[in-house]
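FIELD: query
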Amino acid sequence: MEASRPASADLSHYLGALRRHWWLALAVTGAGLGAGAVLAQTMPKVYESSASVLVQSVDQDTNAQGGRTKGAVNLDTEAQLVGSGAVAAKAAALMRADVSPIELAKSVSVQVPANTTVLVITFKSETPQGAQSGSHAFAEAYLRNREETARAQLDKQIQSLNLKVRQLTGTLTGINAKLAAARPGSPTESNLQSLRNNSQNQLNSLTGRLNELTTTMVGGGSIISDSRVPEDPTSPNTLLNVGTGGMIGLLLGLGLAYLRERFDRRLVTATDVRDRGRVAVLAALDERSTPHFDDVLQPYGPGGRVFNRLRNEVLASLEGGEQIIVVTGTSRGPASTLVAANLAAALARTGSDVVLIGAHLPDSVVDAAPLARMLGVSAVPGLSDLLAGRVALGRALQRTPRIPSLRVITTGGAATAAGLMQSQRLKDTLETLRRQSQYVVIEAPSTSSSADAQSLASLADAAILAVELRRSRRPALIDAAEQLQRVGTRMLGAVVMPRLSAMQPSQLSTPAVTLPPPMPESDGAVEGPTQQLSFARPRSAEQDSADATAVIDLSNAGAADGDDK
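FIELD: result
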């Protein structure tokens, strides 16, 4: 079970994803800002105006027990009455509006300031004058409705008192008539006088109450702060819309950047190889230290120092008796060629006897013999000729002129070694080289383009993956690791380099040192006769191609003649 990564690693992964896809987050954020600005320009403008109404208590006011507002007036109820149909109808009449009262009431909002008996009535409209007139109309309509309601309640009380007064007056008239007919000093006279006194007292009380009600001035409140014409619209808020659009765009951009990173199968950094591919990184080359196609890296340059450290790690990782190292790539291209050649050169500079075997046919005919050009040896004969039985091992081995401890077996002539990577001759050749040299580096094709990489890895002791960033993909890396694991080859790790540009014909240059094919020798010999060095002038690509073709044809013809003899 894999151990969980620390939080710092996750944060570094997210920051790396943002750094790689910053353009996406920036583009979406810019789109959000632009959308907010466009929305602010296209949205209809809304103006607001407010009027403050002081609500006065009237006799019919009652406050609910436990209500939010204190006092005789329940301001929460009054706030709901402002938007009622009756008030809206009166406001529509005052405004002379063509809109229905129900639609008009939707533009009204009421606030109740704390610890006051004030209602703040706000009205929204598309014009400043409409907002001012609407707020004033609703405030006036509310006060009129409150006054009418109070007046109606007062009229009902007066009407009820008048009825009671008329009833008591009739009752008192009857009592007086009976009292006039009663015998003086009789108990009847005494009872009638008592009834008359009670009725008179009630009549006097009702008359007093009636006089009080008829003189009462009804007032439900007043406007203490009238509405004004607003100067600026309250909506849309340009800064708020642009800021909100930018924030939404930023969040969306970050989400898209993470999703792109999550579902992007390309390997962009060395961290992706280690974290997403679960492959240890032995060395990571940058643009300054990445090898080119013309030569192996100098030992004391930036790239040479990287391969020197890679050599030390490889030597420390090899166990006793392990000598053969296969270098394969995760994608088509020259990555494995560059890594194998520079690793073999770094091993040979220590004085060890190293053999570099080129088993990777180039993907392009532009540079048909990259190892021969890089190391200054002849393109033929090579591995294909050796496995086909046309030449012996000693003739296929070529010693490089600038690194005496390094010998090379190139890929060979026109005939390929396809189908011969599992032959017994290849196994015998590797066993012979194992006895006669200290280290053997095999330049294998990529695991995604040929099954020869797996065949060669099965004959090797350890393997190294050459990963070309932005060209290699995570499934290919995982598949390469699984292929090596299935054949039982121990994988040391990966060498990571930036994406390599394609080789153009104009970039080809004749090597500073070229060697003609060595003379035939016996199968048992490894060292060829003394080879003559020749220094060549720079020539055109067409001349180089024609000469290479002639050398290949002559070599094949010579090999055929030797076999006939």
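FIELD: remark
The first helix runs from residue 7 to 20.
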